[in-house]
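Figure 2 data, in text form.
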Amino acid sequence: MSTETKKEVRESWKTPVVMGTLASVVLVFFGILGKPETVSFELTGVREAIQLPNIDVASNFLGTAAGVLLLAIAGFVAWRVSKNVRSSIWFSLAFGGIALVALLGWLAGGAVVPVAFILGSALVLAVPIMLGAMAGVMSERVGVVNIAIEGQLLTGAFMAAVVSTLTGNQILGIVSAMITAAAFSAVLAVFAVRYLAQQIIVGVVLNVLAIGITNFLYQQWVTEDESATNSPGTLPIIHIPFLGDIPVIGPVLFQNRITVWLAIAIVIILWFVLFKTKLGLRARAVGENPLAADTVGINVGRTRFWWVTLGGLLAGLGGAVLTIGSSGSFGREMSGGLGFIALAVVILGRWHPGYATAAALLFGFSIILRVWANQVSPGIPTNFITMVPYIVTIIAVVGFVGRSRPPAADGIPYVKG
């Protein structure tokens, strides 16, 4: 067996080892040593037209059942690895979902888990990550590493809040956010394509630049009169008749802001373009083998420039979601590392729009978890709860990515011969 083959096999065991470890933790601490109190999963709220009964189960029983099921998944993945069969990312996502349900049951022992509220909040919180990840997918599929997603989200959030307030038009705020973030992304594209600069360094510099500019303008201008510059409000929540009344699914998908539906539509469109059209085939060819793409007449530089720049539009929309799609105002450095989580989501999602979206939802869930857990389990240290999304990021990327391979030319400048 060659050294390369040995390394590949050894690395492929990461996922079942991490799964087995986490499954054992769930079984022991959430199950065997868990709380005996009953946890109630509330499927419908009091305002829902259709009512479903709550699901009541002992917290430690739920933890035990989840732990056994997680061990079974870990064992199955280990068996596939022993046969040198690549496991689907859906095993990892299913594992994460079951583990989070067990965590909910452990946290809410003796309390109620509002399922629709948590899922709906997770979706809303996942949208900026999702859109940032789509920007990352677009960039890296053509061979440009986009570390600047954080700065694009922050710039979009600032522009959406300020322009919406100054003009009184939230649509203009969204458009300005997308254009500004695209301009930031175009800078990355120019340096990466025209000047063959080190893409990671350029991305880091752009992030620092975005933080510096927004902090300066916020401190020196916005805070002087926030009612005139930073009061954009939020987009209205739209309720679709009948569909919005479906238990669990209705409040999550059909009682939401238009930005949520836009994000879902963007994911579907991007998947279709990437994998079902000639345009997407050309983009993937540039990211895998730019020399071969150039040989058949594809303009590598132009393709990279436009895909990276248009990806910035999506990140800008994600930034707008942070302000007029959620909080209703801009705050200093309010992106709070979401851009880097989006980059992790790209890797965890194996540079695929659908998988990346599923991973983004997992992180959205972890973010709402830290807020909700502070209410039902006040004894847990706040700092620990704040770390949850980043702990999930580390575990997911290190333990569950497995043998995923980025586009072959990702991060490699192309010099036309």
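Caption note: The CA atoms of residues 188 and 288 lie 20 Å apart.
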